[in-house]
């Protein structure tokens, strides 16, 4: 039996996080405690956890209240989803796993947006699925070409996989690109799988694209969680949503082999965070902290323009910054991040090392920086700036 390839970013963080105290390797909005979350509600009687809640197995697919709320958040006046279109999972990584292992099998071909979270292309490869990478370029602000997408379609292509907003680039595929991607999917009878774990963490003034499941295209499925955009990664709760009930049926069958139910405590906290009276306040907080971080990074890149460049992220919880040597060549990003961890206790993610497909990577020289917490970023940029100028 062959081994899965190492999940590079998780191995990197696992090795270096323990020796660091400035944590900029993550991708979540600034995390909250239960008390901080509770204080966001205008109703002091509301509590993230019902203290009388019996600690029994919860509803098999997740509580009706939570599934109904998620259906509402992914609906429009024209497209109405219900709780029957939603399955709750222990985090979005399990949601992704269920989609990838349920919809594809050996001999199939999928097209995956790149660069992106390695699970989305490495797991299908391990299963014997052929994967073509739909690559974005820094010259196009990391937005891939729909013309190139169509060129990648093969007779055995089953799906297009996207990550919107994207990790690690922060690119947001706009509505135009989503519409054109749907047109390709319709033309070749393909499913679209959209990992939307960073939704609704959008930093641009442009109108964000709709959730893929609310576009009217039915052969689609999306995943998400309250870890990233909502800043609650300690609550291990994610979801799968699809307007196609047959996709949901297949997901439920696969889920039965991995999950009896999600934690009732996690379900309760998620219901609180997504409540109509709490969610807008929570997202205003998280977006404000990200905006402060992006202003700091704008200034940092300008001040270090001879060594640094970037494409300002339009969404998600990370930024990619390219660092070059004094001769203009990209730094060895893995060596740089290892040295910063070992000597200065700052934890960063090397882009070229952690986000490559085994070949020379356009991300060589890039570091991925967390933007969720502006106070942590301020401390980290002080260290990084001193290092670059030493």
UniProtKB/TrEMBL annotation:
CDD domains in the record: AAT_like
Entry protein name: Pyridoxal phosphate-dependent transferase
Name of a matching Pfam family: Aminotran_1_2
Keyword Ribonucleoprotein: no
Record's keyword terms, sorted: Transferase
PANTHER family reported in the protein's UniProt record: AMINOTRANSFERASE FUNCTION, HYPOTHETICAL (EUROFUNG)
InterPro entries per UniProt: Aminotransferase_I/II_large (IPR004839), PyrdxlP-dep_Trfase (IPR015424), PyrdxlP-dep_Trfase_major (IPR015421), PyrdxlP-dep_Trfase_small (IPR015422)
Every Aminotransferase class I/classII large domain range: 56-382
Sections of the chain in a coiled coil: none
GO MF terms held by the record: pyridoxal phosphate binding; transferase activity
Organism whose genome encodes this protein: Truncatella angustata
């Amino acid at each position: 039996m062959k081994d899965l390839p190492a999940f590079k970013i998780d191995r990197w963080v696992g090795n270096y996080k323990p020796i660091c105290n400035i944590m900029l390797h993550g991708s979540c909005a600034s995390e909250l405690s239960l008390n901080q979350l509770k204080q966001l509600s205008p109703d002091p009687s509301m509590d993230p956890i019902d203290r009388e809640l019996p600690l029994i197995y919860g509803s098999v697919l997740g509580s009706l209240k939570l599934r109904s709320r998620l259906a509402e958040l992914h609906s429009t006046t024209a497209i109405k989803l219900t709780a029957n279109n939603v399955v709750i999972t222990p985090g979005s990584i399990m949601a992704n796993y269920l989609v990838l292992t349920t919809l594809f099998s050996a001999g199939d071909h999928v097209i995956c947006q790149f660069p992106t979270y390695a699970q989305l292309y490495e797991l299908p490869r391990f299963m014997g699925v052929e994967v073509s990478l739909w690559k974005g370029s820094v010259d196009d602000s990391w937005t891939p070409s729909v013309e190139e997408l169509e060129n990648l379609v093969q007779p055995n292509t089953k799906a297009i996989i996207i990550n919107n907003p994207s990790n690690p680039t922060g690119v947001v595929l706009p509505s135009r690109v989503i519409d054109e991607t749907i047109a390709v999917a319709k033309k070749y009878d393909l499913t679209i799988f959209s990992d939307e774990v960073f939704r609704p963490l959008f930093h641009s003034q442009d109108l964000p694209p709709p959730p893929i499941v609310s576009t009217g295209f039915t052969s689609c499925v999306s995943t998400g969680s309250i870890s990233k955009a909502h800043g609650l990664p300690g609550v291990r709760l994610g979801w799968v949503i699809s307007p196609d009930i047959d996709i949901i049926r297949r997901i439920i069958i696969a889920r039965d082999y991995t999950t009896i139910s999600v934690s009732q405590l996690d379900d309760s906290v998620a219901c609180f965070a997504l409540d109509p009276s709490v969610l807008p306040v929570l997202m205003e907080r998280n977006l404000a902290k990200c905006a402060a971080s992006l202003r700091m990074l704008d200034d940092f890149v300008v001040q270090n323009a001879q060594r640094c460049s970037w494409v300002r992220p339009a969404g998600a919880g990370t930024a990619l910054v390219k660092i070059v040597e004094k001769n203009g060549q990209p730094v060895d990003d893995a060596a740089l991040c290892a040295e910063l961890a070992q000597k200065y206790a700052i934890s960063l993610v090397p882009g070229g090392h952690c986000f490559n497909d085994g070949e020379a990577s356009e991300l060589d020289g890039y570091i991925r920086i967390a933007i969720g917490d502006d106070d942590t970023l301020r401390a980290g940029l002080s260290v990084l700036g001193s290092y670059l100028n030493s």
